[in-house]
Amino acid sequence: MVRIASLDPSVALGRGKELLDSTKAQLGRVPNLYGAMAQSPAALDGYLAFRGALGKGVLNVQMRERIALLTASMNDCEYCVSAHTFRGGKIGISPDELAATQKSHSEDPKTASALRFVDALILQRGRISDSDFADLKSHNWSDEEIGEMVAHVALNVFSNYFNHIAKPELDFPAVAVER
To answer: pTM above 0.85?
Structure first.
C-alpha cells in the first residue's frame, strides 16, 4: 500500500515541478520514488544535489551502481534493488555480477574489496576495523575513492529509508533482495 503518493509532474507546482521536470529531462521519466520524494521538495532537492555532486566524482558509474545495489540489498529495499539492477544491466554489468553484488561478491578482486568494505561499513555503522581498511587499501583504492564510497552509502541509505516509509509503486522489473 502506497503511503506517500508519487507527485505527477503534470500537476506539480513550484519547486517540486521544477525538480520533477529536471529529473524527467535527465532520466527520460520520473521514477515513482522520486515522485514521492517530490512531496517534500527540500528532500528531493537535497537528494538530487547530493547525487549530482557524487556523479562528478572519481568512482566510475559501474562502481556507483554496485554500491547502490549492495546498500539496497543490505537495507532490504526491493524497490531500490530492482531499480539498481535495471540500471546496472543498462550500463553493462552482467546479470551474474549484479546477483553477486547483492552478496558483497565480485569476480574482480578490486571490486570485491570495495563491496566487502561497503558491507562492513553498513553492518558496523561506520566503525570498520583496521583490517577492513587495510584490505581496501591493499587493492589500491585511494582516499578520494574511499570518501566517495562512504558518501554513496549515505545517499543510498536515504533513498532506501525513504522508500520504506513512502512505499511507492514499483515501476521497474521486480528483482528479489538476495542476501
So the answer is: yes
